[in-house]
Amino acid sequence: MNLDVLGLFDNDYDTEGFRTCSVTGLKIHRSAENYVKLFGLTAVVALLVGGIFAFTVAMTRWEVVGLLQPSDFYIHLSLHAWNLLIFWMVFMEIAILYVGGPMVLGRRLPITRVAQTGYVSMVLGALVINVSIFLTSPPDTAPLLTAYAPLQSPPAFYAGVILFIVGAVVAALPFFLTLWRERREYPNRSLPLVAFGAFVTSIIAVEALVGGLITFVVTFLWRIDLIQWMDAAWYRQMYWTIGHGTQQINLAAMVTVWYFLTHVVGGAEVISEKVSRTAFILYLFFINLGAAHHLMSDPAVSVGWRIFNTSYAFYGAAFASMIHAFAIPAGLEAGRRKRGKGGGTFGWLTNAPWANPVFSATIFSIILFGFLGGITGVVMGQMQVNMTWHNTFATVGHFHGTVAVGTTLAFMGLVFFVVRTMFQRRLSFGRMASLQPFFYAGAMGIVVIMMMYVGILYGVPRRTAEIVRNIPGTEFSLQAASPLFAIFGVFAILAITAGTIFVVVAVASLLIGDRVTGPEDNADLVPDGGAATDDKPVHAYEMRGTFLICLVFMAVFIGSYVINWYVLTELWSVGV
Amino acid sequence: MSSPLEIPEDGWWDRNINRRESIWLGLSGIWSLIIFAWMSAFTRIGEQNPIGVTYQVSAREYQEKMQSYKEAASERGDALVPPDTDVFIAAFRFSWDGTPVVLEAGTEYDFHLSSYDVQHGFSIRPEHALSKQMNFQVLPGYEWILPMTFDEPGVYHVICNEYCGNGHRTMHGTIEVVDER
């Protein structure tokens, strides 16, 4: 396939189609690079679409503005969710697989025809989903992400979902073939950590997608009346294999990106291959069980099922996340100390390349994901505490803490990195680009905290157009939450502005940005001091800064845990 | 140099682990065990557990149960007073059948929750303390029997927090808890 649109696919390759990246030193084949660009660009388009609906949705929930009618609200909310939580993320994740497989291993992308088919199917699926949601009319309702049967959505919606899921599985096949060939050629060689992380991600992805395929094929058959009865409990349990499973893909992909970007732009090293890989293995076995937290306040699942899923097993994955929480900053600390960039307890962090948005986006992603998304995920995943979080706005706060600040920021950093190294464009509006991650992380972080507060402190429900000032038909209101909603509204506007700046910078850089002409143009992406040379093993370097940060993290974790349990035990008694 | 982009050197499994990382592994592991043990123990010692019995029930069967419950119940104003300690509530678009209802503080009631049509969310909190709120999923086809004891008198508001259609936001019910002692 000869792709060359606007000069975006025209890097210099040798006669075999390879080139060497001046930043990462990777041997990159044209086929892999072009598909990474294609999937990445498509993801940014989805981010833009979803971001537009972020504005209408937030301005409706902020009832002082009250932008949309209730009949439109759920449609906008559904479009917001599908474009951001699914299309933006999954297109990026396929790109990450192609980076983690072919690029890191220095191979070409095999069976590009299959990658192309997967791409077309994903794009068609995304279009069908968007159009069918937009055109929803009674008796159908918009699906949000969950599409909880027996509430029915347009048949085309379910068909679109099936098309998209099949496309994503097909698009993952070239990655699997790459790894298979690598293993056949070098049966005794370990994979690089980033490739290993991508491999674990891809397995979690296929589990989730196949679960989703079963769910949505059956639901589609029900919707077109080939199946008469749809069991709500069956649907919920099946749906959440993909509903939360896709978010576990985001997590594993994001952690892989953390290892990748902290290394290439910050000089981080792997402090222990054994520990980091073990953590990925724990994800592989346990993380999908985290999906069970959606069923904690449900009937129809037994106590044993709940305790096994969230407690015995899911904490295997929580443990894994705590391992990465140390390993990644410690890698940065050790790597920078090795380069002579130590300086006291936190010097390695304060003298890091903060002006580089790839670096700052990655670090904010790590911090905010851990403190806002990770801690709350474990706390609300406790069977009993879940009663106070379930379906309140606090839940929305949790997943904005994981995906809107965590994953999205990591992927924004990655997009900037791809613009610089694969599209070979310098970032337009340099200063604005530098500040963008700070702006987005700060504003979105406050939005997330407000969401959690209104949910926990006032029991404000999610999925509602307006209810704080006025529940029609009653004097009762949740007016007390209004001041927090005002903060929410203002910072939501700021966060959306920061998101807009991201899209503007990324797109402008591609279209009008200066070309990267030589390695010196990307010199700021290479960690200070270049490759370190001494022979001291990484684990022998000081990691006291990271250790202190992790102790603070643990203190906040325990604090949130205790507060949530205290709030719970203040309630009237329920259950046996 | 140990790069995540390169194949690790031979013997990577046997490399030492930094002492601080080992300590962190220990702390994280212990914490994981504590939160597991606490959650499990709370099902035995705790007063707040979303446990209870579930039965499969069709919408029609539940409607019939609801009907005989209402016939047996007495009325106070426009509110029901249950005949015994079983309280039936049914969710349907866009109302809570069985509310308003008057209950006594300190008495353990068995709440029967089900839906006539789609999924709903039973989100309940007293008027005087919005932060004291609990939330449960209500499924059509299932009758969930959830024991509840209210400590404090007051008006408790129930709003639906699972999207159930355009009138979702109007779905509101009340439970009045009175002190009979």
Automatic annotation (TrEMBL), chain A:
User: What is the top-level taxon of the source organism?
Assistant: Archaea
Q: Which GO terms describe its biological process?
A: aerobic respiration
What GO cellular-component annotations does this UniProt entry give?
membrane
One GO MF term on file is: cytochrome-c oxidase activity
Q: What keywords are annotated for this sequence in UniProt?
A: Membrane, Transmembrane, Transmembrane helix
Locate the Cytochrome oxidase subunit I profile domain: which residues?
38-576
Name one matching Pfam family: COX1
What SUPFAM superfamilies does the database record attribute to this sequence?
Answer: Cytochrome c oxidase subunit I-like (SSF81442)
Under the heading InterPro entries, the entry gives: Cyt_c_oxase-like_su1_dom, Cyt_c_oxase-like_su1_sf, Cyt_C_Oxase_1
The record's section on PROSITE patterns has:
COX1 (PS50855)
Which residue ranges does UniProt annotate as crossing the membrane?
Answer: 38-59, 79-105, 117-136, 156-179, 191-222, 249-268, 280-297, 312-332, 358-379, 399-419, 439-460, 480-512, 546-568
What is the protein name given in its UniProt record? Answer: Cytochrome C oxidase subunit I
Per the UniProt entry, what species is this protein from, by scientific name? Salinigranum rubrum
Taxonomic placement: Archaea, Methanobacteriati, Methanobacteriota, Stenosarchaea group, Halobacteria
TrEMBL record, chain B:
Q: Where is the Cytochrome oxidase subunit II copper A binding domain?
A: 82-181
**Keywords of the record:** Copper, Membrane, Metal-binding, Transmembrane, Transmembrane helix
Predominant cellular place of this UniProt entry's protein = other
Question: Matching InterPro entries, A to Z?
Answer: CcO_II-like_C, Copper_CuA, Cupredoxin, NosZ/Cyto_c_oxidase_sub2
User: Can you name a GO cellular component term?
Assistant: membrane
Q: GO MF annotations for this entry?
A: copper ion binding; cytochrome-c oxidase activity
The cross-references to Pfam families, in alphabetical order and at most eight, read: COX2
Q: Where in the cell is it found?
A: Cell envelope
* Record-annotated membrane-spanning stretches: 23-42
- The reply to whether Transmembrane helix figures as a keyword in the UniProt entry is yes
Annotated protein name in UniProt: Cytochrome C oxidase subunit II
Organism this protein belongs to: Salinigranum rubrum
